[in-house]
Amino acid sequence: MSALIQEMSDKAQRLGIPLGVQFDLTYRCNERCVHCYLDHDDRDEMTTAEIKDLLEQMAEAGVFFLTFSGGEIMMRRDFFAIVEHARRLSFCVKLKTNAVMIHRSEADRIQALALDSVQISVYSHRAEVHDTITRLPGSLKRTIEAVRLLVERGVKVVFANVLMRDNFADYSGVQALAAEVGAEFTIDPTITPKIDGNRSILGLNIDRAQLQQVLRDPSLLGASPEEFCALPDGPPAPQDAQLMLPCSASHTFCYVSPYGDVCPCVQFPLLAGNVRTTRFLDIWHHSPQMKEVRSITLSDLPVCSSCAHGGGTCSRCPGLAYMEGDMRGPSHQDCEKTFVRTGVAPTGWRVRCEAHPVDETGADPQPPPAQDPGPIASSPPVNGC
Amino acid sequence: MSPVYIARVKEVAARSIGGEMMIMSARDSMLFSLNETATAIWQAADGATPLAEIVQRSVCARFEVDAATALRDAEELVEGLAQHGILKVSNLPIEETP
Ligand code: SF4
Ligand code: SF4
To answer: Which residues of A have a CB under 8 Å from any CB of B?
Structure first.
């Protein structure tokens, strides 16, 4: 994060401004990805007029970074009307799409919108693997054609490569494809529970050995190897823990669903209100749920505040912890990633092993012996926070 | 000296955060932060009002600064913003493009 963005974010937090919002325009989709956390029926999506009004409220509230996601955003017939309205309101707009509905004319319109970027899901460089995951024959071909049209027009395209057991072997191929077409590349090694809490898709997650390979792959590492290599300093001092916030959710960021539900984050489905009945800014400032999440510091997390990684080596997601049943608890998936990165067993593991002898993620529930983390470097550019 | 006209470029994202204007250029994702006086100039950059008049109205009147100094600073600012592609500058009024 640039120093100026950090400064802006600190200022927004001090002033109580929701600087960033992810807004899912629809849960409908033309693909049926095996790992998708959504249900794809239309359960009374907001109308164009409702969405435009909400965008105006958000602009007034100070929202600057706006991500339109779904479902497949282009399933909405009013997609361009919505994004054009958002750009008229001067949001910094990012799109998340599978791009299969982008042809020449759509690419021209996207170029004219002067967006921040378009993030496109690519699971493999091989059609048989990608199309098996999306369950839409021909989807890789259509996606890559769209990517080329966008890149030709100077639109910044970012590949989002979600890793699962079935496409794990292909991430280098996707990375090479990104380089060939002129797109950036990000990788996300975490399959999360469905938005309704259903955990049946967690079995698709890569296993520990694969995670270790990804987290130590020099071709995926960022610019600060020392930071990633660092062993944990131990639990934070109590006075520091009181000042440490779990993440930006509810502080400078929130999520809005196609039905107007507002939550701290797409990955933190704690319902705080609905914009059809309450103004966006009232939900942001006054909902008890937003306030509760906002009140939590590291010192309120009994397990994580005593964990060696709590001081900073772990980027625990409170949303995942919430979906595991306790927003003040550890997130098992983050314990796993943190262990694989550092080789130092987290406190959350011990607690979980006592509570859950069987692990639905397929990972070994027993803490493996601590090991020398070896020459690992900085975190790959995973999606999220 | 011929008047200078300034207009905001549409291909940017912009938001006032606590009185400071944050501007992100779509061209290269560069982020700029404008202080209060620069923000006042940015907001008044309608392509139709000469810069000297903007400075007089939006800067001198509000921030109690000397007109000559304010105009010099404003000229420097608009030149910098124009170089980064986030402001258009011309000696003729700038038509708004749809
Ligand atoms: S850490 Fe989790 S809850 Fe927080 S912003 Fe990131 S994904 Fe959302
Ligand atoms: S590793 Fe686990 S227990 Fe430790 S801080 Fe992270 S989530 Fe909490």
So the answer is: 2, 4-5, 7-8, 11-12, 15, 17, 19, 59, 62-64, 90-93, 114-117, 156
